[in-house]
Specification:
Elements lengths: L2 E11 L3 H10 L6 E5 L1 E3 L2 E3 L8 E8 L1 H15 L5 E10 L8
Antiparallel strand pairs: 1-5, 1-6, 2-5, 3-4
Length: 101
Amino acid sequence: MTSRIKLVTVFTEAAIESSLVHELDGIGVPGYTITNARGKGSGGVRSGAWEANANIRVEILCAEALAELLISRLQERYYEHYSMVMYMSDVDVLRPEKFSS
């Protein structure tokens, strides 16, 4: 049996990873996964060849209210000064208790 929750995916600059983690912990996100990311977008190629050119992908599974708070907070604090793309989608998970705070 599955339950529907939200997946928030954030692509941003690796340089702000520690600040972002602090933000996630501060609003009570139950967990997250961070991976290195490379690609091309409106800001050009992000190859990850050196730290200043590296991106990360952060994935957070949580309840809808927390997902909306997270998106709002990150937009407010980071969008103006950092490269950041976010999207939210519905996902069906097993063991939903793992994703509630």
